[in-house]
Every structure is written in structure tokens, then in C-alpha cells.
Specification:
The protein has about 300 residues and is an alpha/beta fold. It has helices spanning about 60-75, 90-100, 125-140, 160-170, 185-195, 215-220, 240-250, 255-265, 280-285, 295-300; strands at about 10, 15, 30-35, 35-40, 45, 80, 105-110, 115, 120-125, 145-150, 175-180, 200-205, 225-230. The strands form 4 sheets. The chain has a 7-stranded parallel sheet with strand order 5-6-7-10-11-12-13. The protein is globular and about 55 Å long.
């Protein structure tokens, strides 16, 4: 289909993708976090609106603000961040760019890491730290209540139930609405569920890394939102033949096809591709309009 007949030309890649003229995240469908907070399933990850090594300010703050606003203009309603991104920088930019927030925009943030320097991540799940992190996130995001607050990682030096319990106390105090987890296995998910209701899990998952498939299976069965981080990883150096073939047929990028595959993998899947570029956020959102054939999905399922 030529672009004048309804295709969308990716600004970032220059390729013509067979999808509606204007990228629209609503085409990814919707999912109710916790049963009462609906979001469009294709979200935005705000880690990359920071500096190199997820440290310090971005090279161009105005561009970062424009990226966030453009994502929302294109129908993105789930935006994922963390106090460790910058640290603090990502949350500050989101507050500056979007507050007061549109009624349908859901901010998800996380706590549980210390960041002493660029590229350095140290687990910190002490309940006092989690509580202080929440208070800081509320200020930076300019929110009265955080819609989704996630334990960023288990701390091997702190019983997981104590870390999750701090989140439950914040929820009881009205500081957060829903509780999520990140970087957990099934056992840790079950331990957290014994403490509180878990509405989302955020683990690494993509076309070429399905090590969290067992966690995804539990989330799918129980209606828990699954937020895959690193969703665009698709074997860039040696992409699967099935990925290349689908991208060539659709005139799309490999990353767009990888996102379309993720969205079809489970109804609870909530990909959050991130970028610091307006062009790339448009390209990512455009993936919501891609339609893979059953044969292409089967080939991609078997690709690794």
C-alpha cells in the first residue's frame, strides 16, 4: 500500500509502514490495571529521557519534554518511570511536561535501587527507604497519589515481605493506588501476594529473551498486568529470519514487528518502549497499528 493510500511513513527509519496515517496507541487495545485503572496497552518508558548511563539530565531537556508530550498526544496513557532514572531526573521531567495530568494518563513509578554513579545500581529495599522514595516521587511527579507504585527489585539483604509491606502501608495511607513488582520470579510474586494485592509485574521479556515466560503465564492466568522491559530487543545483530520477513512484508522496522508480536503474546501484555527522540516515539506508537498474520506469529513464536 503506498503512503498516499493510508500508510504511515516512519520518520526515524524512512520506511513506509502499512498502518493508519496517524500513530495511535489506542489501537493496541486497553487493559484495566487493578481492575479500575484502564490504560492503552502500548505505553511509554521514561528511562531514556535522562543522561548517558541513566545518569544526570538529558542532552536536550526541551526534546525530552517534547517526547513525553508527543507520546501523550498519540494516545499513550501508561507512562513508566522510576526514582532511580537520573536519579530523580525522569520524574522531574514528567512532572514538568505533564502536570496537571490528563485524566486518562497513568503514571507508574518504582523504588528499590540506590544510584551512587552512572551505570551503578545497588538494591535497597529497606522499608524506610521505600517510604522516603515514595514521598520524593510524589513531589517530583507533582502528584497527590501515585497510580502504580512498583518495587523495582528484590533486595537480598531485606526480607521481600518487608519491602512489599512498606508498599502496602503506603497504599493504606493513601499515597499510592496500586502495587506492582519488578524483576521477580514466580516464588517472589507469590510471597508478595501473601502480603498484598499485586496488580502488575515488570520483568525483562522480548522476542529473543523469554526467561520470564513462567511469570507471564501466571500473570495471564490471573489477570495481572505484565510490563516487559527491554521490549525492543530483537536480536539486532542477528535478527531471526521470521522477524526480517515480517518486517519486509509490512514495510516496517524490526522493532515495530517485535512490539506487535509482544502485544499479541498475551492480553495482559503492556509494552513500554522508551526513547529520547520524538521521531522514535512516533515510530514506536505506530506499531500499535501493525497486523501480523497467524503464520507470522507462529514463525516468531518459534524463532528462539
Amino acid at each position: 500500500m503506498p503512503p498516499e493510500a493510508g500508510g504511515y511513513r516512519s520518520v526515524a527509519s524512512g520506511r513506509v509502514t502499512v498502518m493508519p496515517d496517524t500513530p495511535d496507541a489506542s489501537r493496541s487495545g486497553s487493559f484495566p490495571i487493578g481492575g479500575d485503572v484502564p490504560v492503552h496497552r502500548l505505553g511509554f518508558g521514561a528511562m531514556r529521557i535522562t543522561g548517558k548511563g541513566v545518569w544526570g539530565p538529558p542532552p536536550d531537556r526541551d526534546e525530552a519534554i517534547a517526547v513525553v508530550r508527543r507520546a501523550v498526544e498519540l494516545g499513550t496513557t501508561l507512562i513508566d518511570t522510576a526514582d532511580s532514572y537520573g536519579p530523580d531526573v525522569s520524574e522531574e521531567i514528567l512532572g514538568e511536561a505533564l502536570a496537571p495530568y490528563p485524566d486518562d494518563v497513568v503514571i507508574a513509578t518504582k523504588a528499590g535501587w540506590d544510584r551512587p554513579g552512572p551505570g551503578v545500581w545497588i538494591p535497597h529495599g529497606d522499608p524506610d527507604h521505600i517510604t522516603q522514595a515514595c514521598e520524593g516521587s510524589l513531589r517530583r511527579l507533582q502528584l497527590d497519589v501515585i497510580p502504580l507504585f512498583q518495587m523495582h527489585t528484590p533486595d537480598p539483604d531485606v526480607p521481600y515481605e518487608e519491602s512489599v509491606g512498606a508498599c502496602a502501608e503506603l497504599q493504606a495511607a493513601g499515597k499510592i493506588r496500586h502495587i506492582g513488582l519488578s524483576n521477580v520470579d514466580v516464588d517472589q510474586l507469590r510471597r508478595a501476594q501473601a502480603v498484598t494485592t499485586v496488580t502488575t509485574v515488570q520483568n525483562r521479556y522480548n522476542l529473543t529473551d523469554r526467561s520470564s515466560q513462567d511469570v507471564l503465564d501466571v500473570c495471564t492466568a490471573e489477570g495481572i498486568g505484565f510490563i516487559p522491559w527491554a521490549p525492543l530487543a530483537a536480536g539486532e545483530d542477528d535478527p531471526p529470519d521470521a522477524l526480517t520477513a515480517a518486517a519486509d512484508r509490512l514495510g516496517a522496522t524490526a522493532s515495530q514487528v517485535a512490539l506487535a508480536w509482544l502485544l499479541g503474546r498475551s492480553p495482559v501484555m503492556l509494552p513500554i518502549p522508551g526513547t529520547g527522540s520524538v521521531a522514535h516515539v512516533e515510530e514506536n506508537v505506530a506499531a500499535a497499528g501493525l497486523e501480523l498474520t497467524d503464520e507470522e506469529r507462529s514463525a516468531l513464536d518459534a524463532a528462539v
